[in-house]
Amino acid sequence: LATPIIRVLFERAAFGPEATAGTAAALGVYALAIPTWTGLQILTRAFYARTQMWTPVIVGTAATIVAIPLYIVMSDAFGVPGVAMASVISLTLYTLVLAVIWYRPVDARLGLSPVLETAGRAFPLSVPAAFGAAGVAWFITSGLTASPYIAALFALALGSIVYFGLALWIGGTLYDWLWARAKRHAEA
């Protein structure tokens, strides 16, 4: 839904369709980092709670130093979306290094399984729902002959409804299936 979002929020005056396309491309790439950003927020707070606040600072500084050449190379090769991809890559590496440091002690690894299970439950809900919303938005924006702004509003509204509807339907279906499976297992 990047293009409809950017079009509705910003496309007017000097910010034309070309600027919308470039910004939406960058937003689409940045969206790939949402799970990583979520994990990073949890990890850094965990280090702070353990009063190890220098660990995220030092790792983040090292990640920034490593990322600078990556930004230059990706920007030269791919423009604005390259900058976004460099940001996603450096953020992912930063998060992975913090996760390795956090879960390196044996007793800390016991807590990894529930974290991975929770993340694993989100993907079957969000990924198909995102593809459904993207398909609806593409269909509307490419097929509707109304003004681009009206098409974007319609795509944003219907795409959001499709996203949440699919996520709820998939979640309900998986919950029912897993609950029935757990019930059969308990009875056996």
Our measurement of the CA-to-CA distance between the termini, rounded to an integer number of angstroms, reads 46 Å
Radius of gyration, whole Å: 21 Å
Question: How much beta, percentage-wise?
Answer: under 5%
How much helix, percentage-wise, in residues?
A: over 70%
Unreliable parts: none
Element string (H = helix, E = strand): HHHHHHHH
Strand tally: 0
Shape: flat
Overall pLDDT metric: 87
Q: Supply the number of helical segments.
A: 8
Alpha-beta content class:
mainly alpha
Largest sheet: none
Describe the structure in your own words.
It is a single chain. The protein is mostly helical. Helices cover 88% and strands 0% of the residues. It is built from 8 helices and no strands. The chain has helices at 2-10, 17-31, 34-49, 54-78, 80-103, 106-109, 112-143, 148-187. α1 (2-10) packs across α8 and α3 (34-49) runs parallel beside α5 (80-103).
In short:
This protein is an all-alpha fold and 188 residues long.
